[in-house]
Amino acid sequence: SSICSQILIGMLNLSLSLSLSLSLSLSLSLSLSLSLSHQVKVKLDEVLTGKAGEYREPLATLQHNMMLGTQVAGVYRDLCLQMVKHKYECDLQGARQHLESERNLLFDAMKTELLDKIRRLEEDSQSGDLTSEWWSDGVKGRKCNRRSLSGPEKKKKALVSGPFNVYMLRDIDILEDWAAIQKDLPLRFLPLCGPTHPKPSVCLSG
């Protein structure tokens, strides 16, 4: 019986020691968990306030990269705007030059045609022949136009586009006006004609 009692006492002592060690380990685990939780909370507060070193360094790198990207985008935008502006100015200058060239060509063509007609009229007036072939053609054209206007259908008006002032004058009208000017000028300058005032001559300068 003494042996059994000793065994029981030993088992009780062992169970007590085990329970003490278990409670000690639990308390250590709890304190360690609390300490880790506190450290995590402190680190989170440092990150939120921007005081954590391991957070500030990557953030500074990201901000630097963002600044470089913004500068590059601004330079690229300025270059694109300059390119578009230069292209617009070149197209505008080309359009103006083309318009001026076409206007000069049209003016030269009309001037040459009118000067040729006036020269032929002057030649006919000097020779006393005012019934040339194109004069008679103009008279015939006038008669035909009168007949066509009096008919049931009238000719359609000519459509003209562009920034031009166009006067729809026929050749016969131009020639008649020029002939009237040629006849009227000598009468106006006749009192001035004399020994010291020669008879004026009319010419058209280009």
From TrEMBL:
Any one Gene Ontology cellular component term annotated for this protein: nucleoplasm
Q: Is Nucleus one of the keywords?
A: yes
The name this protein carries in UniProt is Uncharacterized protein
- The protein's superkingdom reads Eukaryota
Transmembrane domains' residue ranges: none
Transcription regulation keyword on record: yes
Query: What span is annotated as the signal peptide, if there is one?
Result: 1-19
Matches recorded under SMART domains: Sds3 (SM01401)
Intracellular or extracellular location(s): Nucleus
Which keywords fit this entry according to its UniProt record?
A: Nucleus, Repressor, Signal, Transcription, Transcription regulation
Q: Name one GO biological process term.
A: regulation of gene expression
Per the UniProt record, the source organism is Oncorhynchus kisutch
InterPro entries in the record:
Sds3
